Amino acid sequence: MRLLTEGWCGPGEKLAFIIGGPQKSGWFGATTSDGRGAPYEAGHDVLQPPWPSVNSLVATGEHLADEWVHDPAVFGWAHASGPQQAAPRSAAALNSGRHLAWLVCSNQRLAVVVEADTLAEAKGTGGESGFLGGLLGKGRANAGEVETWWELPTSGIAGFAAADLGRGFDPVEFFRIGFADGSVLEFRMKDAAELVKVAEERL
Predict the structure, then answer these.
(1) SS3 assignment, position 28
(2) Contact in structure between 86 and 112 (CB atoms under 8 Å)
(3) Secondary element (H or E) of residue 120
(4) What does the pLDDT look like over 105-132, one tens digit per residue?
(5) How would you class 2 by CB atoms within 10 Å of its CB: exposed for 0-12, middle for 13-18, buried for 19 or more?
(6) d(CA 106, CA 17)
(7) How many Cα neighbours within 13 Å face the side chain of 90?
(8) Which end of the chain is more exposed for a tag (fewer CB within 10 A), N or C?
(9) How far apart are CA 90 and CA 84, in angstroms?
(10) Residues 51-84: tens digit of each pLDDT
Protein backbone atom coordinates (compact mmCIF):
# COMPACT_ATOMS: atom_id res chain seq x y z
CA MET A 1 0.00 0.00 0.00
CA ARG A 2 2.77 2.43 0.95
CA LEU A 3 4.57 1.76 -2.32
CA LEU A 4 1.49 2.88 -4.22
CA THR A 5 0.66 5.91 -2.10
CA GLU A 6 4.23 7.22 -2.12
CA GLY A 7 5.53 6.10 -5.50
CA TRP A 8 2.53 5.78 -7.78
CA CYS A 9 -0.24 8.14 -6.67
CA GLY A 10 -0.09 11.70 -7.96
CA PRO A 11 -1.08 14.93 -6.17
CA GLY A 12 -4.52 14.60 -4.59
CA GLU A 13 -4.81 10.97 -5.68
CA LYS A 14 -6.25 8.50 -3.15
CA LEU A 15 -6.63 4.74 -3.45
CA ALA A 16 -10.13 3.29 -3.62
CA PHE A 17 -9.40 -0.44 -3.82
CA ILE A 18 -6.72 -2.95 -4.85
CA ILE A 19 -7.28 -6.44 -6.26
CA GLY A 20 -4.39 -8.85 -6.72
CA GLY A 21 -2.01 -11.27 -5.06
CA PRO A 22 -3.83 -14.24 -3.46
CA GLN A 23 -7.19 -12.73 -4.51
CA LYS A 24 -6.29 -13.06 -8.19
CA SER A 25 -6.09 -16.81 -8.49
CA GLY A 26 -6.60 -17.47 -12.17
CA TRP A 27 -6.84 -16.18 -15.73
CA PHE A 28 -9.21 -13.75 -17.40
CA GLY A 29 -11.17 -14.86 -20.41
CA ALA A 30 -12.91 -12.58 -22.89
CA THR A 31 -15.75 -12.36 -25.35
CA THR A 32 -15.19 -9.85 -28.16
CA SER A 33 -15.90 -9.51 -31.87
CA ASP A 34 -12.81 -11.68 -32.41
CA GLY A 35 -14.37 -14.61 -30.54
CA ARG A 36 -14.22 -15.87 -26.98
CA GLY A 37 -11.96 -18.00 -24.83
CA ALA A 38 -9.37 -18.01 -22.05
CA PRO A 39 -6.73 -17.01 -21.22
CA TYR A 40 -7.27 -13.85 -23.22
CA GLU A 41 -4.20 -12.39 -24.96
CA ALA A 42 -1.86 -13.71 -22.28
CA GLY A 43 1.66 -12.47 -22.98
CA HIS A 44 4.75 -14.39 -21.93
CA ASP A 45 6.63 -11.84 -19.84
CA VAL A 46 6.24 -13.90 -16.66
CA LEU A 47 6.41 -17.68 -16.28
CA GLN A 48 3.38 -19.87 -15.57
CA PRO A 49 1.84 -19.26 -12.12
CA PRO A 50 0.75 -22.18 -9.91
CA TRP A 51 -2.77 -22.28 -11.37
CA PRO A 52 -4.55 -25.23 -12.99
CA SER A 53 -4.98 -25.32 -16.77
CA VAL A 54 -8.11 -23.80 -18.25
CA ASN A 55 -10.76 -26.37 -19.22
CA SER A 56 -10.55 -27.11 -22.95
CA LEU A 57 -14.16 -26.06 -23.63
CA VAL A 58 -13.61 -22.74 -21.89
CA ALA A 59 -10.25 -22.23 -23.55
CA THR A 60 -11.78 -22.59 -27.01
CA GLY A 61 -15.00 -20.73 -26.21
CA GLU A 62 -17.19 -23.79 -26.71
CA HIS A 63 -18.75 -23.53 -23.24
CA LEU A 64 -22.36 -22.45 -22.69
CA ALA A 65 -23.26 -19.03 -21.30
CA ASP A 66 -21.36 -18.45 -18.02
CA GLU A 67 -20.16 -22.03 -17.49
CA TRP A 68 -16.63 -20.58 -17.28
CA VAL A 69 -17.56 -19.52 -13.73
CA HIS A 70 -17.12 -23.12 -12.61
CA ASP A 71 -13.61 -23.45 -14.01
CA PRO A 72 -11.18 -22.86 -11.09
CA ALA A 73 -8.50 -21.67 -13.53
CA VAL A 74 -10.64 -18.70 -14.61
CA PHE A 75 -10.74 -15.70 -12.28
CA GLY A 76 -12.85 -13.39 -14.41
CA TRP A 77 -14.18 -12.45 -17.82
CA ALA A 78 -14.21 -9.41 -20.10
CA HIS A 79 -17.22 -8.68 -22.32
CA ALA A 80 -16.86 -6.25 -25.21
CA SER A 81 -17.92 -5.63 -28.79
CA GLY A 82 -14.31 -5.07 -29.81
CA PRO A 83 -10.78 -5.91 -28.57
CA GLN A 84 -9.76 -2.26 -28.21
CA GLN A 85 -12.32 -1.55 -25.50
CA ALA A 86 -11.37 -1.11 -21.85
CA ALA A 87 -12.46 -4.49 -20.47
CA PRO A 88 -10.45 -6.76 -22.81
CA ARG A 89 -7.43 -4.47 -22.71
CA SER A 90 -7.37 -4.55 -18.90
CA ALA A 91 -7.89 -8.32 -18.95
CA ALA A 92 -4.95 -8.75 -21.33
CA ALA A 93 -2.70 -6.71 -19.04
CA LEU A 94 -3.80 -8.67 -15.97
CA ASN A 95 -3.12 -11.95 -17.77
CA SER A 96 0.29 -10.81 -18.98
CA GLY A 97 1.29 -9.97 -15.41
CA ARG A 98 0.06 -13.34 -14.15
CA HIS A 99 0.05 -13.57 -10.35
CA LEU A 100 2.22 -10.44 -10.08
CA ALA A 101 -0.33 -8.05 -11.60
CA TRP A 102 -2.65 -5.89 -9.52
CA LEU A 103 -5.81 -3.99 -10.46
CA VAL A 104 -5.61 -0.65 -8.68
CA CYS A 105 -8.38 1.92 -8.54
CA SER A 106 -7.89 5.46 -7.25
CA ASN A 107 -10.10 8.53 -7.33
CA GLN A 108 -8.37 9.47 -10.58
CA ARG A 109 -7.72 6.26 -12.54
CA LEU A 110 -8.07 2.50 -12.84
CA ALA A 111 -4.84 0.71 -13.68
CA VAL A 112 -3.05 -2.61 -13.96
CA VAL A 113 0.32 -2.39 -12.24
CA VAL A 114 3.28 -4.65 -11.55
CA GLU A 115 6.10 -4.06 -9.08
CA ALA A 116 9.28 -3.87 -11.16
CA ASP A 117 11.69 -5.67 -8.83
CA THR A 118 9.21 -8.44 -8.01
CA LEU A 119 8.71 -8.99 -11.73
CA ALA A 120 12.46 -9.16 -12.34
CA GLU A 121 12.88 -11.59 -9.43
CA ALA A 122 10.09 -13.82 -10.78
CA LYS A 123 11.71 -13.99 -14.21
CA GLY A 124 14.92 -15.19 -12.63
CA THR A 125 13.50 -17.71 -10.15
CA GLY A 126 10.81 -19.61 -12.04
CA GLY A 127 7.92 -17.20 -11.73
CA GLU A 128 6.54 -18.01 -8.27
CA SER A 129 8.21 -15.23 -6.31
CA GLY A 130 5.77 -12.64 -5.06
CA PHE A 131 2.73 -14.93 -5.19
CA LEU A 132 1.79 -14.02 -1.63
CA GLY A 133 3.70 -10.76 -1.44
CA GLY A 134 4.51 -8.08 -3.94
CA LEU A 135 2.81 -4.74 -3.47
CA LEU A 136 1.07 -5.66 -0.24
CA GLY A 137 3.78 -7.93 1.15
CA LYS A 138 5.57 -7.24 4.41
CA GLY A 139 9.26 -6.66 4.92
CA ARG A 140 9.91 -4.94 1.59
CA ALA A 141 11.97 -1.99 2.82
CA ASN A 142 13.73 -1.63 -0.53
CA ALA A 143 10.73 -2.06 -2.82
CA GLY A 144 11.28 -0.76 -6.32
CA GLU A 145 9.17 1.18 -8.75
CA VAL A 146 5.68 0.33 -9.91
CA GLU A 147 5.16 -0.21 -13.63
CA THR A 148 1.77 0.71 -15.06
CA TRP A 149 0.80 -1.69 -17.86
CA TRP A 150 -2.65 -0.25 -18.57
CA GLU A 151 -4.69 2.62 -17.19
CA LEU A 152 -7.91 4.54 -17.71
CA PRO A 153 -9.18 7.77 -16.12
CA THR A 154 -12.08 7.20 -13.72
CA SER A 155 -14.24 9.16 -16.16
CA GLY A 156 -14.06 6.01 -18.30
CA ILE A 157 -15.83 3.97 -15.59
CA ALA A 158 -19.61 3.83 -15.94
CA GLY A 159 -20.25 2.08 -12.63
CA PHE A 160 -19.77 -0.88 -10.32
CA ALA A 161 -22.10 -3.76 -9.51
CA ALA A 162 -22.25 -7.10 -7.72
CA ALA A 163 -23.51 -10.14 -9.59
CA ASP A 164 -24.23 -13.78 -8.79
CA LEU A 165 -23.07 -15.93 -11.69
CA GLY A 166 -22.93 -19.61 -12.47
CA ARG A 167 -25.22 -22.46 -13.42
CA GLY A 168 -25.26 -24.35 -10.11
CA PHE A 169 -27.47 -24.17 -7.03
CA ASP A 170 -24.86 -22.03 -5.26
CA PRO A 171 -24.10 -18.95 -7.38
CA VAL A 172 -20.66 -17.38 -7.23
CA GLU A 173 -20.22 -13.72 -6.25
CA PHE A 174 -18.61 -11.43 -8.80
CA PHE A 175 -17.55 -7.79 -8.79
CA ARG A 176 -18.43 -6.05 -12.04
CA ILE A 177 -16.87 -2.92 -13.54
CA GLY A 178 -18.84 -1.30 -16.32
CA PHE A 179 -16.95 1.02 -18.64
CA ALA A 180 -18.19 4.07 -20.52
CA ASP A 181 -17.36 2.35 -23.82
CA GLY A 182 -19.94 -0.36 -23.06
CA SER A 183 -17.51 -3.13 -22.12
CA VAL A 184 -17.64 -4.99 -18.80
CA LEU A 185 -14.99 -6.68 -16.64
CA GLU A 186 -16.13 -9.09 -13.94
CA PHE A 187 -14.13 -11.18 -11.50
CA ARG A 188 -14.60 -13.41 -8.49
CA MET A 189 -14.93 -11.44 -5.28
CA LYS A 190 -16.36 -12.55 -1.96
CA ASP A 191 -18.58 -9.82 -0.49
CA ALA A 192 -18.73 -8.10 -3.87
CA ALA A 193 -21.60 -5.89 -2.73
CA GLU A 194 -19.42 -4.46 0.02
CA LEU A 195 -16.66 -3.63 -2.46
CA VAL A 196 -19.24 -1.85 -4.63
CA LYS A 197 -20.13 0.38 -1.67
CA VAL A 198 -16.48 1.10 -0.91
CA ALA A 199 -15.71 1.93 -4.54
CA GLU A 200 -18.69 4.25 -4.89
CA GLU A 201 -17.88 6.04 -1.63
CA ARG A 202 -14.25 6.65 -2.53
CA LEU A 203 -14.65 7.75 -6.15
Answers:
(1) strand
(2) no
(3) helix 116-125
(4) 999 999 999 887 777 777 665 444 443 3
(5) exposed
(6) 7
(7) 30
(8) N
(9) 10
(10) 899 999 999 999 999 999 999 999 999 999 999 9
